Amino acid sequence: LLTAYLIYLGTQAKQVACQLNHCTDYNSIYVFACILILMPAYLQKDYSTISYFSGVFTAFSIAAILIVISYDCILISDNRRTENVPDIMWMNLSALPIFLGQTCVLFEGNCSLLNIYAEHRYPREMMRTTVHVHIVLAILTLMTGVLSYYAFGDSLSEIIIYDLPEKMPFSILTQIFYMLNVMGCFVIMSQVIFILVEKTYELSNWQFYLYRILFVQLIFVLTLIFPDVNVVLSLFAGSICSCALMVLPVFFWRKAYIVDAPAERRKDRGYQMMGGWIIVVIIMSISVFGIVQNILEMTGLSTMTDDLKAGPMKSKDLNANNNLIQ
Q1: How buried is 12 (Cβ within 10 angstroms: 0-12 exposed, 13-18 middle, 19+ buried)?
Q2: Residues 73/152, Cβ–Cβ less than 8 Å
Q3: Which entry of 103, 167, 222, 264 is 20 to 30 Å from 109 by CA?
Q4: SS3 label, residue 122
Q5: CA 53 to the chain's CA centroid
Q6: Cα dihedral 141→146→149→151 (10° resolution)
Q7: What is the mean pLDDT of residues 172-179?
Q8: Predicted pLDDT at 322
Q9: Cβ pair 294, 235 in contact under 8 A
């Protein structure tokens, strides 16, 4: 996941540079530049210091959302004056599996919650703060999603900033803000691995900084080996992580309620365990298929994508089918 973040950051930085007429074909240069920019943040030792960086990144994100909402309102007003209303599909049930797959991304920050709670100045206030934050996020998300879809209709891209006019100052500024927010996500996600290793092994100051720098450089090397973010997300974050999210809980449940449960509290859970094993078989089969398919795509031996392209299919439908298959 961290590798995918860096690849995506490099892609966003390249798009900004190209709009400023300073473009180069070497994506690794932009990835390395993002690593240098992030160095002051990911070298911090605790969340209390990182919170200042996080506040700045969050402010950039909110500013980008407000710019997008303002542009959507202007576009909707122009459409009403010219009666050029875009096509709108109010419901697309065929996209539901992809939507459910994308919602798994919402859980990527869960591994940071305990560390943040442990370093919270007022731990009992965290729940109320979290609720307030989610309310604000829900309002901003609904406003951005509804207004953007109403403004662009079915031609809306997967990421709204791709629909903004190219080489316009506010578009470039929005992309920069969005890129900085993704940088903040990389810092928060990397802290989980940093803290896990640093609490296991007592590191001196120079070992602490050396370890963090080398770890980020290792991720940079992985971006050179796997430069395609779609392959990384499908192969690792998609196939392997979905296996961990849905298969491991079955084994945990079995150990807690069957293997380690006291004899007087054990119940007949044969049907529940059977359902769990069915889930394991299905998910493992899909994960293995996804891993093999992505390896074939990386080696150029897969013909599935070519078969899909051969049919009379729109580009959006092709992307949707590729995502669904992966």
Answers
A1: buried
A2: no
A3: 222
A4: coil
A5: 19
A6: -110
A7: 86
A8: 38
A9: yes
Cα separation, 223 vs 217, in Å, equals 10
Report d(CA 158, CA 160) in Å as an integer.
6
Task: Report how far residue 28's alpha carbon sits from residue 227's, in angstroms, rounded to the nearest whole number.
Answer: 9
Q: Structure pTM? A: 0.63
Rounded Cα distance, 117 and 239, in Å: 30
CA count, 13 A, side-chain hemisphere, 169: 0
Half-sphere exposure of 128 (CA within 13 A, CB side): 4
C-alpha 322/C-alpha 266 separation (Å) is 45
> If you compute the radius of gyration of the chain from its CA atoms, what whole number of angstroms results?
23
The phi-psi region of residue 287 (left if phi > 0; otherwise alpha if psi is between -120 and 50; otherwise beta) is alpha
Q: What CA–CA distance (Å, rounded) separates 259 from 250?
A: 12
206-208-214-217 Cα dihedral, nearest 10 degrees = -120
State pLDDT tens for residues 93-124. Answer: 666 656 665 666 666 666 667 767 777 778 88
Cβ-based burial of 8 (10 A; exposed 0-12, middle 13-18, buried ≥19): buried
Query: Lowest-pLDDT range, 25-29, 216-220, 307-311?
Result: 307-311
What is the Cα–Cα distance from 231 to 297, expressed in whole angstroms? 8
The per-residue pLDDT for 323 is 40
Number of CB atoms found within 10 A of residue 131's CB: 10
DSSP string, 16-62: HHHHTT---S-HHHHHHHHHHHHHHHHT-SSHHHHHHHHHHHHHHHH
Query: Of the candidates 56, 50, 9, 31, which has an alpha carbon nearest to the alpha carbon of residue 192?
Result: 50
Q: Count CB atoms within 10 A of the CB of residue 189.
A: 16
User: Please, are residues 6 and 31 in contact by the beta-carbon 8 Å criterion?
Assistant: yes
- In the chain, DSSP finds a helix count (H) and a strand count (E) of 14, 0
Instruction: Give me the helix-helix angle, 96-103 and 315-325, nearest 10°.
Output: 60
Give the Cα separation of 184 and 251 in Å (integer). Answer: 34
